[in-house]
Amino acid sequence: MSTKILPTITKPADLRRLGLEEERQLAQEIREFLIEHVSRQGGHLGPNLGVVELTLALHRVFDSPRDAIVFDTGHQSYVHKLLTGRQDFSRLRERGGLAGYPQRSESPHDIVESSHASSSLSWADGISRAFSLTGQDDRHVVAVVGDGALTGGMTWEALNNITDDNKRKLVIVVNDNGRSYAPTIGGMARFLNTVRTQRSYLALQSQSSKAFRQLGGGLGNRFYRGVRGGIHGFLSRFSNGEALYSNLDIKYLGPVDGHDIEALEDTLRQAKDYGAPVIVHAITQKGRGYQLALDNDADQFHAVGKMDPTTGEPLKADQGESWTSVFADEIAELAATNPKLVGITAAMLRPVGLHRFKERFPERVLDVGIAEQHAVTSAAGLAYGGLHPVVAIYSTFMNRAFDQVLMDVGLHRAGVTFVLDRAGVTGPDGPSHHGVWDLALLQIVPTIRLAAPRDASRLREELREAVAVDDAPTVIRFSKGVVDDEHDAVERLEDGVDVLVRGSKQDVLLVTVGPMATLGLDVARLLEADGIGATVVDPRWVVPVPQSVLCLSGEHRIVVTIEDGVVVGGIGTRVRQDLRAAEIDTTVTELGIPDEFIAHASRSQILKDAGLTAENIAANVIAQVRGTRIPYARPERTRK
Questions:
Q1: Residue 475: which residues within 8 A CB-CB, separation 6 or more?
Q2: What range(s) does the Transketolase-like pyrimidine-binding domain occupy (predicted)?
Q3: Which terminus of the chain is more solvent-facing, meaning fewer CB atoms within 10 Å of its CB: N or C?
Q4: Do 112 and 103 contact (CB within 8 A), yes or no?
Q5: Do the annotations mark residue 384 as ligand-binding?
Q6: Is 456 annotated as a binding residue?
Q7: DSSP labels, 485-544
Q8: How confident is the model at residue 525, as a pLDDT?
């Protein structure tokens, strides 16, 4: 059996001693490594299986980190990590282990940490301009952008500026596998598919390759590589590839087989030597080398949990229904009785739970690609036209469309419902994926109404209430993973606030936001055991603050708000302000997530770090009630 090559690769320079057959062996080893370790830890599998040869070629041709390589998005960087000295995947996406995205603290080879798509070309534009302006003209910048990310308008804004200066050494590699999470949609996708499947290109490529190699040995190969660029240029003009990009005044090379290491290296060297911005169009296959992924039509194992690599089945049995699944069922049922409802997704149909709606009413669900800003303003237009759009987006990605929520939806009092999946602390995907900013951001939009369900029953009823509002934006936010236990109210007040526990005394009012209700109930039990009466309420609709919450606050000695959003400008702040406006002087303590970029870890670890445990909160309340120390001393905070 041949000696393993992967363990001998500690830096990109090690790749340059390998011959072609050794590179092919290494590619196979990398795929085996990824299948073994990602199936054990969970993570992005399909995208990384598809970029093995491409990443090898990039690190053979370019000199990272002197040449800056930017990934869009960073979930396709696992191979890059392996080739830059990071081969311990035993704690991938766990605290103390490797991040699931590029991370500067891990390696100087990692440039951009954000996992939000469509930003790489702007990064590359800025970096290459900086190199040019500071006399570092021998340094290259490479942006690896997925075809799905090309559906985002920011990429085209960047291209417009990149072509303004043709003296920079900037290479844009389009990793074209025809998919983002699912098949890429829209006009750009149709164009790329035409290039990808052009019969004349495929036939001529095959015939020319065979003919040149029949010349024999190195001479044939050198001759073939020498004319390959010319053939690609001819074919790309024929298939409209160069016609598109020439209008942007940028050189186009391709399409090239993204799994042919030799062809990739040839094309990338041409791009490197060109001395001006170049687009390299590489055709790849998501899930390459792993039949189970290729057979998975839904997402080709885009992101997986811990699973059996031989069967693809999850190792851990489901512990209950997910928030996303509850929403998926309910919105499909509502659509059946309300023909005005339409769904909008930004390239994430299944992850956000609109797939069942689309299965039943395909013409009423729109996938706009990775274009959240367009999704929101388009929704405002749909509302103007008499429909009620339901825009389902991950909470972290909603940040990108705040201006459109404010000016296009809020200002026009459009009846649009936003459903924010993965709200709050999400855990292993790290700082750019936590959905902790939505409460602070969205509550400042005038007229907006914001709900945070505590369990599946509340999600269903609050969604029904939301889509009935046609004169203002509404928001429903829920967490990642399995829904929380059901907590029935002992009383529902006239304005819809649920009282979950009535304290034996009116000492402390605990105002909980969404799934923090469980934590609030645990705190109340500890307080009651210590002789302190605690009332727990779930406002259900947290913005605007219900009047009954203000009234109850005036009846208690202390108010404690608990939320899983950033505490600065959060719901607690809103409660405090409304109490002051109502001239109610009850002390308010706001608990939530600190204003930090929080690294990847489990949800429970992050909440514990923020002091959001029943024991810590109860101890601080007891100290506050008894005046024994300064309230709410949190664990020491560290900034990344």
A1: 417, 418, 419, 420, 438, 442, 448, 449, 450, 451, 466
A2: 321-485
A3: N
A4: no
A5: no
A6: no
A7: PP---SEE-TTS-EEEE--SSSSEEEEE-GGGHHHHHHHHHHHHHTT--EEEEE-SEEES
A8: 97
Residues pairing with 424 in the sheet:
435
Where do the structural domains in the chain lie, given as residue ranges? 6-198+239-294, 323-477, 492-626
Q: Is 148 annotated as a binding residue?
A: yes
According to the model, what pLDDT value does residue 237 have? 40
Is 177 known as a binding-site position? Answer: yes
DSSP 408: I
To the question of domain 323-477 being in CATH 3.40.50.970, the answer is yes
Closest residue by Cα to residue 579 from 543, 554, 616: 554
User: What one-character-per-residue DSSP string does 345-406 give?
Assistant: ESS-TTTTT-HHHHHH-GGGEEE--S-HHHHHHHHHHHHHTT-EEEEEEEHHHHGGGHHHII
To the question of whether residue 116 is assigned a binding role by annotation, the answer is: yes
Spatial contact of 70 and 120, defined as CB atoms under 8 Å apart: yes
Confirm whether 6-198+239-294 and 492-626 share one CATH topology. yes
Q: Tokens at residue 459, please?
A: 């999600």
Confidence at residue 334, expressed as pLDDT on a 0 to 100 scale: 98
Q: Which amino acid is at 118?
A: S
Tell me if 631 sits within 8 A of 589, measured CB to CB: yes
CA 564 – CA 612 distance, rounded (Å): 9
**281 annotated binding-site participant:** no
- Secondary structure of residue 477 in the 3-state scheme: strand
> CA-to-CA distance for 416 and 389, rounded, in angstroms?
5
Half-sphere exposure of 375 (CA within 13 A, CB side): 33
Task: Decide which of 3.20.20.300, 3.40.50.920, 3.40.50.170, 3.40.50.720 is the CATH code for 492-626.
Answer: 3.40.50.920
The predicted-structure confidence for 169-180, as pLDDT tens digits, reads as follows 999 999 998 754
Tokens in use for 425? 């602390």
Q: Is CATH 3.40.50.1820 correct for 6-198+239-294?
A: no
Fill in the amino acid letter for 131.
F
Residues with active-site annotation: 286, 372, 400
> Is there a binding annotation on residue 117?
yes
pLDDT at 238: 38
Q: What's at 461, amino acid-wise?
A: E
pTM of this structure = 0.87
CA-wise closest residue to 48 among 224, 142, 175: 175
**CA dist., res. 116 & res. 434, Å (int):** 12
- Cα–Cα distance, 175 to 30 (Å, whole number): 18
Cβ proximity of 204 and 231 under 8 Å = yes
H-state helical runs in 184-260: 187-196, 199-213, 217-238, 241-246
510 within 8 A of 560, measured Cβ to Cβ: yes
Structure tokens at 112: 């951009």
Query: Splitting the chain (640 residues) into consecutive groups of 10 residues, what average pLDDT does each group show?
Result: 89 96 97 94 91 97 97 92 96 93 94 88 95 94 90 89 86 82 52 52 44 43 39 41 62 93 96 94 91 81 85 76 97 98 95 97 95 96 98 96 98 98 92 94 97 98 98 97 93 97 95 97 97 97 98 97 96 97 96 94 94 96 81 51
Beta carbons of 448 and 406 less than 8 angstroms apart: no
- pLDDT reported for residue 207: 43
